[in-house]
Amino acid sequence: MDFTDTPEEAAFRVKARSFLAENAQPKAGGDRNLATGADKSGMLAASRPWQAKKAAAGFAGITMAKEYGGQGLSPIMEVIYRQEEAEFIAPRGVYEIGLGMCIPTMLAYATEEQKQRYAGPALRGEEIWCQLFSEPAGGSDLAGLRTRADRDGDGDDADWIINGQKIWTSGAQFSDYGILVTRSDFDAPKHKGLTFFFLSMKSPGIEVRPIRQASGPANFNEVYFTDVRIPDSQRLGAIGEGWKVSLTTLMNERFAVGVAPPPDFEEVFDLARETELEDGPALDNAMVRDRLADWYVRKQGLKNSHFRTMTAMSRGETPGPESSINKLVSATKYQEVSFFGMELQEMLGIVTDPDTVALDGLFQSGALSSPGYRIAGGTDEILRNIIAERVLGLPQDVRLDKVGSFRDLPTGDK
Amino acid sequence: MNFEFDDDQRMLRDQARRFLLDKCPADVVRQTLEGEQPFDQDLWRQFAEMGWLGAAIPEEYGGSGMGHLELCVLAEELGRSLAPTPFASSIYLGSEALMVAGTEEQKQSYLPDIATGEAIWCLALSEGARPATATNTTATVSDGKLNGEKVPVADGDIAHKAIVIAKDGSGTGLFIVDLTGTGVERSAVETLDPTRSQAKLSFTNAPAERLGGDGWPLLEDIQDRAAVLLAFEQVGGAQACLEMAKDYAMGRYAFGRPIAGYQAIKHRLADMYVQIELARSNAYFGAWALSTDAAELPVAAATARISAVEAFNYASKENIQVHGGMGFTWEFNCHLYYRRARQTALVLGSLRRWKDRLINALSQRNAA
User: What letter would DSSP give residue B181?
Assistant: First the structure.
């Protein structure tokens, strides 16, 4: 056992580190709001030039094939780059979905001409992509979606007309393109009647409405489709095989969905060191120590599990659904740590004024944001199902939605 | 990055698993549980023959010189099989203590017998209900004679030698005591897990030989090393519980289908898996720290122990729950793991103490 890189990995790490040192601001000592991602509009403004810089230096699309502008390297190099990048203020947010999920789906199903057209601009940050999957009637049960795709005419290459509504679409308000899964056959069984497309988000008939979250900001959107026309050439995969294409996207989502943001153990440990309780320093309080130890152990468990995953990747193995553990554990920890950070500040803990409370209100904003992390990208419950079914091999629930016409199936609220 | 056991170590794991499946099935464990023997002498002899007892003991002291990573691999399999032997006492504590604190002469004279299994060692620390601390220690050595009482001492009834922590002038020290010699009385203590025997030891002017310098820091180092090794046993035990629960749930039908299809069961098994994976990863980091004598050992050991105690606790109790009424019968093996989980959770000190140690170690590290 050791933690050293292979010579090839070490050389890549050195290259990444020197690129970052020359071009980015370290998180340590940098703007806290940018470092923690609290300043959303600042992040957005900074992300486009940063993505272009990365692409020019060969750090965008690390695993993407060379013929489409990527580097054609193994996934371990992506992990190494991210480890290094994590020390710097390097906003990747708006490109994560496009490069992590949409472009890989395009590369798997689009025509050669389309791949050449779309991969490069996405890599260079010139075009932003979003993923139009979830619907009011289908979140965890994604295949329950009802947005309809009808052909305009009988020809084999007739256009498609889209009507319906998507929800929870991150970045739709500033996206140029989107990947879209629709229902083209309401009489087929649920998973058999879907068809997949990509489209311009500037298409007539698309309306994007931000959803204000319980935590205040609007990071997600509803997207309404009214007679939106898509040429058949923008269909990905065969008619009725949209579910299969969606699974390609979702496989990539599991790599892209990361770990919850701060506050984590370090922040609450520092707070405990600086806090005086009625009987002395909080760090000397037995109950505080007990909680801190639990979070440290869980945090280290994830970190050490990541080392094991990296080892497997370094050997050329593909990480499986085991990585579901990461979000399941870290999102819960995020919420617990946020609550406890507020508790440590006693009655003042309810105050959100960044000038008044510890860490500019990070614990308070974490308390409000954390419920979303337990839901987005797979709820706690869905992640447990994934672990139970795909890792442990336990049977699926009894399913009432595999046979018969989708038209007769209750979804969403009915 | 190579955070995984290598091919040879994995081969050792496969061999150990096959051997223990064959020689240490549940009915063998039950012979010790039912009090037919204090430990399994046959297994013990074979462990010695295969070089397991001396896995981490260098060849110059009669060991097989494989190393600590190999010992971790074996520990996981011992935990999985519930092998009823004094392995933890004699190896994780006894031989580790000698290797950490022994003089050249002590190593030469004691380690070879540990490796052959002829001598069983144990560590005598607890003096009853009070937490074991330097201040609470009342056993005393003066002029090379030990007086006092230790209870409970894991494997104290079957061991030949004990390492005893005792007051020594103003401080504490570790002392080697021959349990078969003069001034020692011992009696077995009944515990929740009869597959691991425990005893009360009373010393009256028992001859005591000094081991190393200042006792308490040495003891903590020895406990750190044992905590990593025991964490592998706990991970092995927890993994066995998950597999038992899964197999039972797949084959048990209720309301017309296997109970493994119900989310109440699936989510429980998923939670077991998550806790075990975290504990396994933390144990790996402990193994790395142990095998490289890393400065991170105190933090790594406490992390591995807390994680492993919690995973084994959870897996062993939820395994019974998944089995329903049958899980609570004497006949089913669930309770063997449940007992062992409780035993391993306490034998090196409670979770509370280890969490305390972890935060101390982290505070010191951050202050440095």
Answer: S
pLDDT, tens digit (0-9, with 9 covering 90-100), for B227-266: 999 999 999 999 999 999 999 999 999 999 999 999 999 9
Count of alpha carbons within 13 angstroms of residue A229, beta-carbon side: 7
Domain boundary among A223, A253, A283: A253
Nearest to B278 among A5, A301, A392 (CB): A301
Check whether residue B208 and residue B310 sit in a common domain. Answer: no
CA distance between the termini of chain B: 27
In angstroms, the separation between the Cα of residue A140 and the nearest Cα of chain B is 15
Domain that holds residue A298: 258-375
Residue B96 domain boundaries: 7-116
The ipTM value here is 0.96
Write out residues 266-305 of B within 8 Å (CB-CB) of A.
266-267, 269-271, 273-274, 277-279, 281-282, 284-285, 287-288, 291, 302-303
Residue with tokens 């097989």: B64
CATH number for the domain spanning B330: value is 1.20.140.10
pLDDT tens digits for range A249-287: 887 765 555 678 899 999 999 999 999 999 999 999 999
Q: What is the CATH number of the domain that holds A287?
A: 1.20.140.10
B1 domain residue, yes or no? no
**Whether A269 and B362 lie within 8 Å, measured CB to CB:** yes
C-alpha gyration radius of chain A: 23
Count of domains forming chain B: 3
Q: Which two tokens stand for residue B332?
A: 């089913």
Q: Alpha carbon B137 to chain centroid distance?
A: 22
Instruction: Quick: pLDDT tens for B169-181.
Output: 889 999 999 999 9
Q: Which residue of A has its CA nearest to B351?
A: A290
pTM greater than 0.90 (yes/no): yes
Q: CB A392 to CB B246 under 8 A?
A: yes
Residue A26 vs residue B87, higher pLDDT? B87
